[in-house]
Amino acid sequence: DVLEIGPGPGGLTRGLLAEGARRVLAVEKDARCMPALAEIAAAYSGRLEVVNADALALDVTSRLDAPIRVVANLPYNVGTELLTRWLDPGHWPPFWDSLTLMFQREVAERIVATPGSKSYGRLAILSQWRSDPRIVMELPPEAFSPPPKVHSAVVHLTRLAEPRFPAEPRVLFRVVAAGFNQRRKMLRASLKGLAPDIEQRLERAGIKPTQRAEELSLPQFCALARDAELLGERWTLLIIRELLLGPKRYTDLRERLDGVSTSVLAERLSRLEDAGLIRRTSLEPPAASIVYELTQDGRALRPAVFALIRWGGRYLMPQRPGERVEPDWLRLAMSAYIPKGPTPERSFNIHIPADGSEAVIHVRGGPDGT
Of the candidates 233, 321, 307, which has an alpha carbon nearest to the alpha carbon of residue 277? Predict the structure, then answer.
């Protein structure tokens, strides 16, 4: 089946039917085109359904049978909005197999643009992440009557069964939008609103904080989104916090993370293992227990966690009745505030009482003044 948006008086519609389209659903907002389309429907009995409606407000999925190909000579003022809706339907794969769409040439160039070009941006990322887009035809103004003031181009997009690289759509689109909303700024500035430790996250994804959004490839954006997604999940940073304090058994984590279910904890630990941030290991006898500990990559998260601690410290509220506080949580938090750099060669202890027990931070200045 074919979905045609904006058929007008039906010139393209006739061609689709004559070339053997099984069935065409034509959606036209302008009621003046209805008589001409009705004549075509009469000539191709049962193969053309005409709907006088706004394509932006119409659900077409119940009217068509797969495979569905979308063909449209779109009004330029709604073309980009329709394309983004078709590429971001809420679930993937979508209802369509391919899109063959007419755009203003500048928009078509944005769809197929590559990193480093002036046209490269959000539309290129969205289109190329989930489809294979290519410009198949360019048309000068004189190809139309009356001629527009711009050149046009036809873009053909074939959907992919799965996105090219794994990433959670909402997270990816948020990262891309933040980057390109201030495209001339370095990423450490344009993405700062996403996380206070954005420089560390960029470096973990193999991206220089001084790069700009237009320099990043699609796989780099996806890698950054995966990092943001993994650490942004509930309980994940709390697990990292616990393991920064030392190896923990599964039962230790369950006991210290109030409210986490066994299934959620197991899933978070599995994902962190898959990401190479934690590993399972056995303690030396006599304990001989299986524990979780941070890998080298996991330990590299310490500056990121400390940055979040310092940021959150500005909003710290007094302890509420019934709220749990572990002394070593405070020890980790205090450690985030101990500055690096030259210090006197002396030692001192910080004692932190909490809930009937006490944590001690031992601070020692080195002989080299650090």
Answer: 233
